[in-house]
Amino acid sequence: MFQLKTLSREAIARSLEKAERYRLLNEPAEAESICLDILQIDPQNQTALVMLLLAFTDQFDKRLGPALNQARELLPHLQGAYERAYYAGIICERRAKAWLHHDGPGSAAAAYDCFREAMNWYEKAEAVCPPGNDDPALRWNTCARLLMRNPRLQPASAERTEPPLE
User: Fold this and answer.
1) pLDDT averaged over every residue in the chain
2) Does 162 fall in a domain?
3) Least crowded by CB within 10 Å, which of 35, 36, 68, 158?
4) The total number of structural domains that make up the chain
């Protein structure tokens, strides 16, 4: 169909800045495209991988299924145990927030479960994080505060399930 143009290696740093700027402008598709261009010439670029993962999570409100799968597929490519656990937590936390915005039947319980899963990942990240890095604790506290402030966020209850029709 189209032959995509290739970036030069010298353009990577500037392109990463542009991708970050697009994310901050709430234009994750543009950031995604830039990161894919960078990864074409530098497949192990950790900054581009993280930025791409975040660009996918920025799209959870619009296309949760595909973006969720794409974000999860990037986790094994992150180099450290800390990074894999921390960004797994980010994925779960942002998925929980997407459930909150969905506001359909079962969305509160799904959001609760995702927040708790995120908190578990943040605890794993905290156990292996570099000294002076409290990011996992900050994210864990954010999730905890959201759960404490929003009483409708509760785990799914077995009592709420309907018995099968005869």
Assistant:
1) 92
2) no
3) 158
4) 2
